[in-house]
Each structure stands twice: as C-alpha cells, then as structure tokens.
Design a protein that fits this description.
Elements (H helix, E strand, L loop, with lengths): L3 E5 L10 H18 L7 E5 L10 E5 L4 H13 L5 E5 L4 H12 L4 E6 L3 H5 L3 H14 L5 E4 L5 H8 L6 E3 L20 E5 L8 H14 L4 E5 L5 H8 L6 E5 L3 H4 L8 E4 L8 H7 L4 E5 L2 H9 L4 E4 L2 H13 L4 H27 L1
Parallel strand pairs: 1-2, 1-4, 2-3, 4-5, 5-6, 6-7, 8-9, 8-11, 9-10, 11-12, 12-13
Helix pairs in contact: 1-13, 7-8, 7-12
C-alpha cells in the first residue's frame, strides 16, 4: 500500500527560497510521486499558514490556524482522515520536526522524514548561542526520525556517527534544479562579467569573492559584476568593491524565472565557499551555459571531474584570478554544456524517483 505525502512547514517566510520557487520545487516532488505511484498518489499536501500564492497541479495546500493548539488538532484530524498511511515530512529540523514527531506519538503509523541541506560538520560546529541551540535540537530530534534525507553521499558516515541512525534510514537526494530545455549560448564571445549567486554571508566566502574580483579588475577590463542574493555581508562587499574600477549590479533576491534571464549576462560564476555539500549554484550556471571557477572543496572537485573543461578549482586568490581571466577569454562549445545538462537531468530523475519511493513505501 502506498502512503499519502504531507509536507509540514507552518511559516513559508522562514526559508531562504521564495514562496513561488518553493511551490515549484514541491510540484517537482509531486510529479515524481505521481509517476512513482503510477498515478495512485496525485499530489503532495503542503501544511502551512495561509499563502497568497497559487497552489500547483501536484501540490494541495492545507491552511493552518495561527494558534498552536488549534493547529495541532487540525493537523491530527487531517492525518487521521487519510485514506492511506502517512509520510510526514518536516520542513525544518526544529519546531516543525518537534511538531511532526509529536504527531507520530499519537498516530504511530506515521513515518517522519527530516532533511539536512548543508555540510553536517559546519552545522554541528556553528558558534554562539544559535549554534548551541541548533545542536541540542538536532541531537535530540534527528535520532527519532524514520528517515533522514541528505544532499551529499559523503555525509552518510558522519550522519551515522552523529545521530546513531542506520544506513538504511539515510537517503541521498539533492535539491532539484530547474531544468531548461536546452543550453542557450547567446554568442561565442563571453560577457566580460563575473557573477555571484547565493546568500551574502561569510560562509559563502563573500570577502574573498570581493578581493578576487578587485584583483581581476586590476589585470583585465571587466564590464560588470553581477551579484544575485541578499544577506548580512552585503555592506562588506560594497566596501571591498568601492575602490575597484568596475561597475557592480546588486540584483537582490531573484526568483528562478527572473534568474533565467540573468544567466546570459554572466561570463563566469565565481564560487568562494570553503565548504559545500552539493554546489547548486554551480550546477545551475553550467546548465545555462556559464563556466565556473570555484574554491576547491568536495563539491567543486566532483563537478570538476564531471565537467573538467567547464569547471576550474583554485586554492589561492592569484590562481583564481588567472582562471577567471582564462575562462573569460575561452570559447566554449554548446555541445559540452549540453552534455552536462543531459547528465544532470538523468541524475536528477534518478534522485527524485528514489526520494518519491522513500515517501511512498
């Protein structure tokens, strides 16, 4: 018997992704569930507070009351009324996960799945009071889930050691990337621009990004720096780039549909994160015809192995500058990007099928 799928996230404003993009992602999951269940499960139910955004063909929205006790009772009633057994997916690893596990106490047939979307080492070693609270929640709650979703296979052993889960309880399924139909290379001459895509935070290597761009601008003419994202390190970046002779465009946070039109204006994506679990922005760049220069880490090494002519890794600022200049002067074949797009599409289909079956069975 297949299970009905419920995704519990009471506050959509609490996530970094826009609500539109989040609903699109859920719809992608819903399509995978529909396919894997051979049409038996037509949609995923998102349990959340009221949202002004439209639902999707494979996503049904169940609106919550703002009061916790009423919310708990209404969700319990919803789950008990399910025609099949239930998989309840937690939208975060704190209040939402505690809520889901409490529901399972009263309805033991529920399966609860949690997710870790970052490097476990960084999550468990975050400093300050916030980091301490995160660790306490994770250590208390994660060992009690039925399954844990990771985005990187290299995290499996760390998760087993940290939370005492068995290997059969762990699933690797990266966050899906919105796939274009084909790679659109606008012209053979690459724009003399460098791009940043992501949250403007010290974990993303924002300071190093600014230093490298300033160094490149002193060696070669650049027409523009494209910065897509928001975050606490924006003022630092503005200060670093103020002394350079290159124009900077801060786009703020863009939805996927808006970002589609910006990729063609970026000559090379520079990624300065010291540690990454998957490298989503790099993958998005490649399937949109943009080469990548990235600080060497586990994610960038894997990408470099997959697309060695399109991805370069660096260890020093000087090396990064040289690689960017070389990339901006290079002619890339559309076929090379297309090959990566085909590879990533197949890989993503396999991950989504695996994820859907973990929810259904």
């Amino acid at each position: 018997m297949v299970r009905n799928i419920y995704f519990y996230l009471p506050n959509l404003d609490s996530i970094n992704t826009s609500q539109e993009d989040f609903l699109d992602r859920l719809n992608t999951y819903g399509e995978a569930v529909y396919k894997a269940s051979r049409g038996q499960i037509a949609e995923i139910t998102l349990i959340t507070r009221r949202t002004s955004h439209q639902s999707r063909p494979r996503v049904k929205v169940f609106s919550l009351n703002s009061m916790l006790l009423k919310r708990f009772g209404s969700v319990q009633k919803l789950l008990r009324a399910s025609s099949n057994q239930v998989t309840l997916i937690s939208g975060n690893n704190f209040s939402a996960l505690l809520f889901c596990l409490t529901q399972r106490v009263l309805i033991p047939q529920i399966k609860v799945q949690a997710s870790l979307h970052g490097k476990l080492e960084l999550i468990m070693n975050e400093s300050g009071l916030r980091g301490l609270v995160k660790r306490l929640f994770l250590k208390a709650l994660i060992p009690r889930v039925d399954s844990l979703r990771l985005v990187d296979a290299s995290e499996i052993d760390a998760a087993i050691n940290e939370f005492g889960l068995s290997r059969s309880q762990l699933l690797v399924a990266p966050v899906p990337v919105a796939m274009p139909k084909s790679v659109d290379l606008i012209s053979k001459e690459r724009p003399r621009t460098i791009g940043f895509v992501g949250r403007l935070h010290q974990e993303r290597g924002v300071e190093e990004w600014g230093v490298i761009c300033r160094n490149v601008a002193s060696l070669e003419p650049l027409s523009l720096l494209h910065i897509i994202g928001v975050g606490p390190s924006q003022d630092l970046l503005v200060s670093l780039l103020s002394s350079s002779n290159v124009k900077v465009k801060f786009w703020g946070h863009l939805q996927q549909a808006e970002l589609e039109n910006v990729w063609r204006e970026i000559g090379v994506l520079l990624v300065c994160s010291k540690s990454e679990s998957y490298g989503m922005a790099s993958r998005e760049a490649l399937i949109h015809g943009v080469s990548v220069v990235a600080r060497e880490n586990s994610a960038s090494r894997l990408l470099c192995d997959l697309a060695p002519t399109l991805v370069s890794t660096y260890k020093t600022i000087e090396q990064a500058s040289e690689l960017i200049i070389h990339s901006l002067k290079s002619d890339y074949s559309a076929t090379t990007f297309e090959n990566f797009l085909h590879y990533l599409r197949k890989e993503q289909e396999d991950y989504l099928d695996r994820l859907a079956h973990s929810w259904l069975n």
